[in-house]
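Figure S4 source data
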Amino acid sequence: MGPIRDTTPGPWRAGRISGHDRPRVGDESEERVNQFALPHGMGGRVVGLVMAVGNADMERRAVSALALSGDESVLEIGFGPGVGLRMLTKRLPRGFVAGVDPSEVMIEQASRRNRDALERSQVELRRGTASALPWDAERFDGVVSVNNVQEWPSLRGDLHEVWRVLRPGGRLVIAVHAWVAKYAKDRGDPDGPWDEHILEVLSATAFSDVTSERTRAISGRAFYITAHKATGGRSARGSA
């Protein structure tokens, strides 16, 4: 695969920053950046509205890639304003949906958007990140992440957590904008394709049937990555 061309759409340009380019605490531009990484306050509420519209097509495609039958248990990591959670509840009339997100503002928005499902205990939301998922091992049939894997500090460690909570045969789907690649916290080789780095770490973490597709989304070019937890054989920790 060739190098990734920067096709950042306008509404997201203020949200792309990392490493030595990160402004000092208190800098006005840091406020704009952090609203996309960790929405908070009034600005975070506006960002949630932007994400609800701009990410909806990627959420829809990622949920579809899980190939659900209707009675599974699925976890969404970084659920944002809750659009994907709502899609999942419609696909899982006899199933269960869990979500984890570090932003209180996103938890509030997702809770309002999924109020009925929460009241009937079809949905459970918790505050946190992929680094320490607050569920037992082999709890879920599927895990989905849309536009937040760039914020995972250690792909190997965080994917081990995903592997832990997946049941044997479970499927992981990662969807992410291509233009955030050079700002990812775990970038791998800065001269190599970021999606290939993700694929390599997935394989090293004992996932199988690992694939990646590059295609267009409404908000720009995107990667759609899928993988399975094998039904037997080596463990993720043993492969490290």
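Figure S5 source data
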Amino acid sequence: MDEALTTTLATLGPLLAKVAEVHGRQDPRLAEVAAGFEAIRAALEAGRPGLGAAAAGLDRLGALTDGFSPPEHACRSYRRALSDLEWLRGQVARAAAPPPPHAAPRGPHPAAGRRHGAKR
């Protein structure tokens, strides 16, 4: 994992717990978001095999948070938490995407290097 991802995984859990504690009465879904993130973090710590589970979990959190959109009353911590989740979803999507197909390496054409009409 790169440094930004490691830092985000380490700080986002406590931040989501704080947001759920402060704003949970107004939005009970925040407790589910905080718990869901812990499952996502565990899946990402498992490495490549956990990417699918992490992607599905982040899609679910996106649905719970209306596309990671903070409500008007959201404080900076709340906005930061949703922004970090959205960033994480992008990182996981890029990591989980299949690599682009590559053309098989080809050598020079058999006629390359010969002048027109030259015999082998």
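Residues 8 and 26 are 25 Å apart (CA to CA). DSSP finds four helices and no strands in the chain.
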